[in-house]
């Protein structure tokens, strides 16, 4: 269920984000742009229904998405992906899942969750720039499933095999989309080569 989106423009922009000399403004801008580019690929199999419309020249049959789209960023870094996706899908509604990771055990803990009322019948994109240990992503997906949602996809920029394995074991029905599969986790649970701390780089907190 793993999809690594191999695209020259994404690789170019991801290289800018990886660079430790890239500042907050350029980091956020490239994150927006990559998120939009990934969304184009992720949504290519979304179901459509026919609709009849009037063009200036007459009637025709067009298409519209069969389901609503709900974005669920994992706070706080996941917020950095929302704007880029909404640029492509402006009607998408947004839920939020707040998790923090225990620095010693690396286990995720919830502190917040709120979702749109239509989430159970929507196509849900759970978004977070990093798929590291996989614990936060797996926990967030479990929380989303409690709403009754069944069409769920996990969208991250970079991930490693350890995190992929955790999510696939817990949620074999969920497709995982990455812009890059990276080498490994270091002893602190950070992705190598990765992006550093995505939240700090998005919000300029370090």
Q: Could you explain the architecture of this structure?
A:
The protein is an alpha/beta fold and 206 residues long. Helix content is 33%, strand content 32%. The protein has six helices and 15 strands. It has helices at 8-18, 24-42, 79-88, 135-145, 161-170, 198-203, and strands at residues 2-4, 48-55, 58-65, 69-75, 93-94, 96-101, 108-114, 123-127, 130-131, 151-155, 158-159, 175-178, 180-181, 184-185, 191-192. It has a single domain (2-46, 65-203), classed as Rossmann fold (3-Layer(aba) Sandwich).
Alpha plus pi helix count: 6
Stated plainly, the CATH topology is called: Rossmann fold
Overall tally of structural domains: 1
The number of E-state strands comes to: 15
- Radius of gyration using CA atoms only: 17 Å
Please report which band the strand proportion falls in: under 5%, 5-15%, 15-25%, 25-35%, 35-45% or over 45%: 25-35%
Q: Tell me the series of helices and strands, N- to C-terminal.
A: EHHEEEHEEEEEHEEHEEEEH
Helix content: 25-40%
User: Which shape, going by the Cα principal axes?
Assistant: globular
Please tell me the CATH architecture by its name: 3-Layer(aba) Sandwich
Poorly predicted sequence stretches spanning 5 or more consecutive residues:
none
Tell me, rounded to a whole number, the average pLDDT.
Answer: 93
The main pleated sheet reads as:
8 strands, mixed
The secondary structure category is alpha/beta
Q: End-to-end distance, in Å?
A: 35 Å
CATH class: Alpha Beta
